[in-house]
Amino acid sequence: MSEARENPADGGAEDVLLATALLAVAGRRIGGVVLGEGTEAGMAEAWLACLGELMPEAAVPMMLPHSASLADIDGSLDLAASLAQGVRVHSPGLAARAAGHVVLMRSAGQASPAWLKRLTDVLLPDEGGGAKLVVACDFACDGPWPGAAILSEALALRLDFTGIDHRTLLAPAGWVEEVKAARERLGTVRIDDEAVEGLVGASVALGVASSRADRQAIQLAKAHAAWRGADVVTPEDAAAAVRFSLAHRARRMPAPPQEVDRGPDDEPAEDMTDQTPPPADDPGTKGDDDDDVTGGGEERPIDATAALLPDSVLEIVARGIKRQGGAQPEARRARDGARTARRGRPIGHRRGDPRRDGALHLLATFERAAPWQALRRKLVGGGDGSGSASRRIIILPDDIRVVRCKIDAPSTVIFAVDASGSSALHRMAEAKGAVELLLSRCYVRRDHVAVVAFGGRDARILLPPTRALARARRALAGLPGGGGTPLASGLSVSHRIALGAQRAGHSCLIVVLTDGRANIDIDGVADRARALADAMQWAKRIAGDGIASVLVDTGARPAAKAADLARALDGRYIPLPHAGAHEIAEAVRAAGG
Amino acid sequence: MILKIEGEGADLSALEGETGHSDAFVDRQSRASARTASDGAAAYPFAAIVGQDEMRTALLVAAVDPSVGGVLVLGDRGTGKSTAVRSLAALLPPLEVIEGCAYACDPASGSVCSDCAAHGRDRSRSIGRVPVPMVDLPLGVTEDRVLGGLDLERALAEGVKAFQPGLLARANRGFLYVDEVNLLEDHLVDLLIDVAASGVNIFERDGLSVRHPAKFVLVGSGNPEEGELRPQLLDRFGLAVDVRTPEDIALRVEIVKRRDAYERDRSAFAERFADEQDRIRRRIVDARARLPHVLVPDAVLEASARLCVALGTDGVRGELTLMRAARALAALDGCDEVSMAHARGAAPGALAHRLRRNPLDESGSGVRVARMAGELLGG
Ligand SMILES: [Zn+2]
Question: Is the same domain home to A555 and A478?
Fold first, then answer.
């Protein structure tokens, strides 16, 4: 047994290699793996080669095509073959074809939640057998994946390749045999109740909601034991399972044990200061659900669990929570835009392949084919008018028409809120009232909402585009005030979000709430003249990219600067003193929001 | 043969050839797959589900009185929502059906498919028994597969015009489950809710005219973290319940252990819960028989109406659902009269999702309903 395996390094290539070996041992019992940070093409190839060496069935993974439609997943009628042979020919679905394979999903970051859900349901059914091993990755997508939550519920592992040289991803000598031996031993590995309770306790403490995750953690602990050559799961195995399969799924930091153990008598007074900050003082938990944190506070992690959550694991947890905080499942729908065009309301027909491009438009197809029937029959020969062939319609691929659909373009409303000292002094309360009203309207129309706050030196995305509007409200309620007015940064960040949403096929509206008194330039330097020039420049860029906007002047009196800015934005100008919350909301609606 | 088709209204009867007939084509295959989907022996026993009382109760209420109008289950992924629905379908006593009918028509019902209506009068068809169907509606499904449509395969390969029943047909008299209903396209959701409410699927398209019963309990699941559900969608479900993964470690361990035992030996596991399964089944059967005779005292009716007014739930649907759910609860308890306690128990599931709430108000409306119900439906 090598040193590296006894004491896995904190992250890095050895950690990835150990996880890979465990994956090879546990196989489809743990669903699969997401290749996370630092996955480039070269890295993925190297890692896949390594997995293939340790796990023969992974040597030739089945590639899931980018363009796989739902019909491809479920199986469908093979129209061409059916027409040619005159009998029904079914092309088998992905699940059938994937039997015995490891499935590689290359564009997982661009797939829509609905598509991923269907795929994981088919490939990784939560009940019954037939599960495959899924490897999900995406080289092209560096932002949050819309379907991240679905994948992380289904796949036990998530690998972080940050800082790894892909040339070091080589299975050490002897591992092939050791994996093989471990796989054979796996069936006999036992786990006692204490270890199960420890694992499940860790899962609860980390806010992992899925029972499947609990079961996978147990399987992974068994795999680790088998890998060590042991027959019984020890705390060491359980710790590895928590680190590899639960830490990245965590939705909250576990409650600090001292808080739970606090007694009324044995606590000296000075310790009280330690408890003043809420359990959410970790930066990673910001933006996470409040009730999750409270829930964690009440849960007393049992000793076995506490031992499974050392600081190194908590770091992974904190990173994961931060990542999820930014990973709004609905944030990106780049590829979904193209795909959903197959759905929605039918508005006509066009040429296409029903397996890929949408439902067959039968009438249009026959309409195209009809005039040619006599001629085609002659060409095909055979038709003497008495056989069944004479009643068959000859349809060529060119005739086939599919239903054309239109979906109503989804929209994203970006609130750019001035949180500077000058604005905070004035009418932020009214502005927030207007924002809430707008949010209610967005809610009804299922808009996506993002919140950008600018104040101090720069602008921050308080909330990436999401439909979870309660989060938007929380983001706004907790809006800090004070400092300078980096208006240009606020506009620049909003512009960036708008472009992303536009690429995803959304129509966009930026609602800027400011008094227009910019005094921090785009580089964060306090320079009033530059600040104003930068703000005007970004406003023009927003207008130039065709992004609709509204500027709500939150100053005590309407300001010329704010009105100028609205003109540069080519957007509507609404001075707040003359507008109540309802008027603002109405004006924004009129502007297309 | 030269086929002339002029525009959308063209008559496709020319395609039928000599085998053509206007009766719906019975796709036995799709019936058969509905059967395997709810194969009683394989399903996880309903009685073995740990915790999640609200969801189980809501499902039982819908099983006793499908007219409560569907159940929406909101909660985390991996909490076994689909397992619960599947388990319930498998627990229910098998259905008596007209043998060979693609829609599992009820021989005792006057409302049957056009096929059975045509045959029913001249000759009596034999009666069979099938498990209660539980049909999964996959995301991304096309309207054709839901509603049914022209059987393309037969149309293209044989030139026969026939109706291929869709998922609505397969779900008749059972459950139609939509996982992550918030990810389903809006127009499909609307369609499902409409058919669930009317109990009939009327298909007039592609030169086909088919009408068949589609009475099912629509069960939708949603994950609120994935984006909010439209209010219009929310209040069209009769009942809505939250389901949370237990945070109690002992319960979570029990879930894992039962699941493990189930995977290892399904029949032994089924045996372990057989008595309890029988007890629940009897309870449902008794409740169904009792339901028509369950009375709602005026005092309960009036208090419930006051509750709806106090909560500001729009329209009569909330009140109606509340009464139906309360009656079903009374029937499940073996009572002939609805008590205040039954109404109290039914109130959160029937009303909480109908409150015209501030969408940004995070305090659960269920808590509000329960509190108000405690006040107004006391005693
Ligand atoms: Zn029938």
Answer: yes
